[in-house]
TrEMBL record:
<dbReference type="GO" id="GO:0003853">
    <property type="term" value="F:short-chain 2-methyl fatty acyl-CoA dehydrogenase activity"/>
</dbReference>
<dbReference type="InterPro" id="IPR009100">
    <property type="entry name" value="AcylCoA_DH/oxidase_NM_dom_sf"/>
</dbReference>
<dbReference type="Pfam" id="PF00441">
    <property type="entry name" value="Acyl-CoA_dh_1"/>
</dbReference>
<dbReference type="GO" id="GO:0005739">
    <property type="term" value="C:mitochondrion"/>
</dbReference>
<feature type="domain" description="Acyl-CoA oxidase/dehydrogenase middle">
    <location>
        <begin position="73"/>
        <end position="168"/>
    </location>
</feature>
<keyword id="KW-0285">Flavoprotein</keyword>
<dbReference type="InterPro" id="IPR046373">
    <property type="entry name" value="Acyl-CoA_Oxase/DH_mid-dom_sf"/>
</dbReference>
<dbReference type="InterPro" id="IPR013786">
    <property type="entry name" value="AcylCoA_DH/ox_N"/>
</dbReference>
<dbReference type="GO" id="GO:0006631">
    <property type="term" value="P:fatty acid metabolic process"/>
</dbReference>
<comment type="pathway">
    <text>Lipid metabolism; mitochondrial fatty acid beta-oxidation.</text>
</comment>
<comment type="similarity">
    <text>Belongs to the acyl-CoA dehydrogenase family.</text>
</comment>
<keyword id="KW-0560">Oxidoreductase</keyword>
<feature type="region of interest" description="Disordered">
    <location>
        <begin position="240"/>
        <end position="269"/>
    </location>
</feature>
<comment type="pathway">
    <text>Amino-acid degradation; L-isoleucine degradation.</text>
</comment>
<dbReference type="InterPro" id="IPR006089">
    <property type="entry name" value="Acyl-CoA_DH_CS"/>
</dbReference>
<dbReference type="InterPro" id="IPR036250">
    <property type="entry name" value="AcylCo_DH-like_C"/>
</dbReference>
<dbReference type="InterPro" id="IPR009075">
    <property type="entry name" value="AcylCo_DH/oxidase_C"/>
</dbReference>
Length: 301
């Protein structure tokens, strides 16, 4: 149940800890960083939001399906609201017992495969970010359309698309949490997601190391393995990986550092090691995926 690690068994999940989620995300990233992104978002954002904020009716309706039937998508970013996410322009105008959502979300992961979207929209633009509210929108709701998949540099197995909302009617019972509190929920959940990004970087670095070392041991130049040359033996791959893993797991257990993925990112860069086997060998996909992993939840520069 890697898509419902922390979800309690009564909702179809494994009932494990946040730390277990981080270990799972790290291990998956060793082999497929794209799937680790999906796993991270599903566990640290989608499921957690439902568990912490959902009514019993909402939990019973969506958590079992998120555990076994479909992915979900978290819709926050927009064309003019990336790092400044709370400058979003998507609105949710109240109409009796309904809200009518209009706007466009950008860079939404898993959108083509999602059965439910958690949409951040402003229910009271006059209050600025304090009007932002989280809405549950089913994928088959009239007016919701998913755009074409972005042609990305890496993480290509994790689809990323625009999502358009054209007079999408959402009943008030589909508000997740409280009206006007969406910005608080987003801040808290994105912090969990960033810890997941750190785990992805560690797993990616380990996967690259796993792919590179056998090549260095078997590839011969001047009648000896590449690994026997002195420069190869002094490169800090194992120590970098170990240090980043220690930091990532420590942060997951304490859940208090604001950006734990930072130390893991340069290590993932160093471990990509394209100069050792060359560009047409296993580490290349790791480098391309690494460049994309850091982007979803914040800007690094």
């Amino acid at each position: 149940m890697y898509m419902a690690i922390e979800t309690p068994p009564e909702y179809g999940g494994s009932g494990l800890s946040f730390f277990a989620s981080i270990l799972t995300i790290e291990e998956i990233a060793r082999f497929c960083p794209s799937i680790s992104v999906v796993c991270d978002l599903q566990n640290t954002l989608l499921n957690t939001l439902f568990l912490k904020l959902g009514t019993e009716e909402q939990k019973n309706k969506y958590l079992p399906k998120l555990a076994s039937e479909f992915t979900g998508s978290f819709c926050l970013s927009e064309a003019e609201a990336g790092s400044d996410a709370f400058a979003l322009r998507t609105t949710a105008s109240q109409d009796g017992n309904n809200f009518i959502i209009n706007g466009t979300k950008m860079w939404i992961s898993s959108a083509p495969h999602s059965g439910v979207f958690l949409v951040m929209a402003n229910a009271d633009p006059g209050k600025g970010y304090k009007g932002i509210t989280c809405f549950i929108v089913d994928a088959n709701t009239p007016g919701l359309t998913v755009g074409k998949k972005e042609n990305k540099l890496g993480l290509r197995a994790s689809a990323t698309c625009e999502v358009h909302f054209d007079n999408v009617v959402v009943p008030r019972c589909n508000v997740l949490g409280e009206v006007g509190q969406g910005y608080k929920y987003a801040i808290e959940m994105l912090n969990e997601g960033r810890i997941g990004i750190g785990a992805q970087m560690v797993g990616l670095a380990q996967g690259c190391l796993d792919a590179t070392v056998p090549y260095l041991l078997n590839r011969k130049q001047f009648k000896q393995p590449l690994y026997s040359f002195q420069v190869r033996t002094t490169l800090p791959f194992p120590s970098c990986s170990t240090a980043s893993r220690s930091n990532s797991r420590s942060t997951a257990s304490r859940y208090e550092l604001p950006s734990p993925s930072f130390p893991a990112q340069p290590q993932a860069d160093q471990t990509a090691a394209l100069q050792l086997p060359g560009t047409n060998y296993p580490p290349l996909p790791f480098l391309l995926n690494r460049k994309l992993i850091k982007q979803p939840l914040y800007s690094f520069q």
